[in-house]
Write a structure and sequence with these properties.
Structural class: alpha/beta
Radius of gyration: 16 Å
Bound molecules: BIS(adenosine)-5'-tetraphosphate
Shape: globular
Number of strands: 5
Helix content: 55-70%
Order of helices and strands: EHEHHHEHEHHHEH
Strand content: 5-15%
């Protein structure tokens, strides 16, 4: 099985690139951002709680996100593999993912980290905000908070995966197609 963690700051292009990779490698796409937005749209208790945090640029709670991923892994027991997009975002989530995959007898194959300059991240998210309807895509101070939280809580995961020899840095600047080709080259060598 091929289990990829697609990693990077907000707006790095994780969701954009996941669309290419699921097609190319026939993987199941698990985006915790999308799963949370589905809960928000359905106005579930979990969604209402997550919206309160996401609107300000904070992370949803580990327990909510981990239980969502757990049930998706159970639903897709016969998959070729998974792309984890936007998950894990904390050391707690990464540890939980290792345990969940251990139970399935299939580890994380690699963590692909998209590197993009801060100014470009903000421009991409503001641009998306014109059409996304996402309340966390409009305000520069909220976007900067998301980047700050990424640097504090999520970026340390690069060390977590480097310690397992699973960390791959990918240049996330340039055209969507060029970035997809860089990712495909790295994944093909795993
Ligand atoms: P996500 O949904 O994961 O959103 P993201 O980080 O903004 O997006 P991504 O990197 O996928 O960017 P995209 O491809 O869309 O998270 C949203 C929120 O949900 C988080 O802030 C958090 O609150 C919560 N959450 C999610 N997962 C969580 C977890 N595990 N734990 C706790 N909380 C969690 O690209 C952005 C834009 O750039 C798009 O408009 C795209 O078209 C454009 N773009 C992409 N590539 C480009 C390129 N090469 N050139 C120009 N533009 C490009």
């Amino acid at each position: 099985m091929l289990n990829l963690v697609l990693f990077g700051p907000p707006g790095a292009g994780k969701g954009t690139q996941a669309d290419f990779l699921i097609e190319k490698f026939k993987l199941i796409h698990l985006s915790t951002g999308d799963l949370l937005r589905n809960e928000i749209a359905a106005k579930t208790e979990l969604g209402i709680e997550a919206k309160r945090l996401m609107d300000k640029g904070f992370l949803a709670s580990d327990s909510i996100v981990i239980s969502m991923i757990k049930s998706k892994l159970q639903e897709n027991f016969d998959a070729n593999g998974f792309i984890f997009d936007g998950f894990p975002r904390t050391v707690e989530q990464a540890t939980a993912l290792d345990h969940l995959l251990e139970e399935k007898g299939t580890p994380v194959s690699g963590m692909l980290c998209l590197c993009v300059e801060k100014e470009e991240l903000i421009n991409r998210i503001l641009h998306r905000g014109k059409t996304s309807g996402r309340s966390d895509d409009h305000d520069v101070s909220i976007i900067e908070n998301r980047i700050r939280i990424y640097n504090e809580k999520t970026k340390p995961l690069t060390e977590f995966y480097a310690a397992q020899n699973k960390f791959y840095k990918i240049d996330g600047m340039g055209s969507v197609e060029d970035i997809a080709n860089r990712l495909i080259e790295t994944i093909s060598s795993l």
